[in-house]
Amino acid sequence: MRNSSLLKPAPALAAALALLSVFPPLLRAAEGDDLKLLREQLHALEQKILVLERKQELRDDDSAAAAKAAAKVTVNDKGFTLASADGANSLRLRGLVQLDARTFFNDNGITNNAFVLRRARLIAEGTFAKNFNFQLVPEFGGSSVSLVDATLGVNVSKELQFKFGRQKSPVGLELLQSDSWTFFNERSLVTNLVPNRDAGVLATGDLLGGRVNYSVGLFGGVADAASTTNTDFDNEKEAVARVFVSPFKDAAGSPVQGLSFGVAVSTGRAKTASGRTSGYRTDGQQTFFSYATTTIADGQNWRVAPQFNYRYGSFGALGEYVVSTVNVRPSATGPKRELQNKAWQLSAGYVLTGEDSSYNGVVPRSNFDFAAGTWGAVEVAARYANLRIDDGAFPVYASAASNANEATSLGLGLNWYLSKTVRFTFDFYQTQFGFAPGAPAVSNAPVLRQDERALITRFQVSF
Questions:
Q1: Distance (Å, rounded) from C-alpha 457 to C-alpha 102?
Q2: pTM for this one?
Q3: At a CB cut-off of 8 Å and minimum separation 6, what does 317 contact?
Q4: What is the pLDDT at residue 16?
Q5: N or C: fewer beta carbons within 10 Å in the chain?
Q6: pLDDT tens digit string along 282-303?
Q7: Helix (H) or strand (E) run with residue 36 in it
Q8: Which helix (H) or strand (E) element contains residue 38?
Q9: Are 354 and 364 in contact (CB under 8 A)?
Q10: What is the pairing mode between strands 132-139 and 114-128?
């Protein structure tokens, strides 16, 4: 007979079996709590990461906005420029310094050899709200400080811009060229017959994709080769118009692509001695004609000036012809007479080092650097010019004994561009004079007793 007690589990074993029966659910419950806690912690961590990422994005956006709004400073051969990030507002400072040495040959002892600070300008230009601008150009060269240009501009479009203030009158082509980049260090005889700076308003613009440039203005009116003062209290004003076309501008590779030509005209009225020129000058800047001090302007004056500019590779040429008409009296009550003075010039240059010739100057492929063996760019130039005074000016309105009635000039030049900003020029001029009927065999003016032969060298810094 079996012992039934062996079939019953011991109490300890029973307790263990009971514990094992309930442990898995407890273990599963504990694991569920841990996973829930872990998920909550991961979720919180994700939220913190998202917050940190958003803060970093905001910081990056602020940095980008600050960089975008920061002013831009540029220093190059165009000067010192401070501009807003969007380019709508800017301020630029530029400069021009020209030091000349003038030497005259066979001048019979005339005291005219000199060193001359020809120009010394600090130029301020600015743009505001993209479409408004100004320019202020004081002159510290010469014998006194003066104001060269002072303008305010409004840019409506490429086809229409307005310029108000003291500025170049748009008649002479060579005059309109920058003082820094003419073929010769002094402009030709033709520039004697056109107005220089005048105060007024000018409308200008480019049409037909830049193939046509026009200018129309109303100015106070100045005499030949003269510049206005800062005021103009009279009723005699002058209208000016100019059209300059480049019909082959888009004909890439064509020999005529760089041909431009046009005509400028002016008309107005002038009175008093300020309405006629104070004198016409040679290439050497010596006066060869001036009216009698009692002569005054009184009546209509007008000018017409056909002109052209041509550039093809290293070759450049510029020409113009000017007729200037003025009505004068020998005194306030003397008889009036219309005088017509005429001048023309043809100049050309060739860049020996192969760079392109340009109305806006030659840019060397490499700047002068003795150590590197680079020499900049070299250009040769030649010019022929003639100016003739109306014979009717003599002897009533001007003295035939102390004035020439004609000047004919030949110029030869060498331009050395050490960089875009630095230039040496070496120019030789010879000017012959003609005289009106009745002039004495030997002029009363020492300057006119022989041909003018002048060597003018210039060291220039322009930026």
A1: 7
A2: 0.84
A3: 308, 309, 310, 311, 346, 347, 348, 349
A4: 56
A5: N
A6: 999 999 999 999 999 999 999 9
A7: helix 11-69
A8: helix 11-69
A9: no
A10: antiparallel
**3-class secondary-structure state, position 57:** helix
Instruction: Please give the Cα distance from 344 to 324 (Å, whole number).
Output: 12
pLDDT digits over 247-264, tens only? 999 999 999 999 999 999
* Structure token pair of residue 454: 């002048």
Instruction: Spell out a b/e string for 183-222, using b for 16 or more CB atoms within 10 Å of the CB, else e.
Output: bbbbbbbbbbbbbbbbbbebbbbbeeeeebbbbebebbbb
Cα–Cα dist 316/406, whole Å: 27
Q: Largest Cα–Cα distance in the chain?
A: 178
- Report residue 340 as tokens: 């017509």
Q: Which of 378, 321, 374, 308 is nearest to 349 (CA)?
A: 378
- Find where tokens 């250009």 sit: 379
Q: Greater confidence, 53 or 260? A: 260
Task: With CA atoms as reference, report the closest residue to 326 among 272, 263, 285.
Answer: 272
pLDDT tens digit sequence for 55-81: 888 887 776 666 666 789 999 988 999
> Cα angle vertex 135, ends 261, 361, to 5°?
45
* Contact call for residues 344 and 319 (beta carbons, < 8 A): yes
Which is higher by pLDDT, 61 or 437?
437
pLDDT at 361: 92
Q: How many CA atoms lie within 13 A of 301 on its CB side?
A: 29
- Residue 364 burial (CB count, 10 A): 21
Top pLDDT among 110 and 458 is at 458
pLDDT at 5 over 50: no
- Beta strands (DSSP E) in 331-451 are 337-351, 377-388, 406-417, 422-434
Strand pairing category for 452-462 and 90-105? antiparallel
- Whole-angstrom distance between the N-terminal and C-terminal Cα of the chain? 129
Is the pLDDT confidence value at 7 over 90?
no
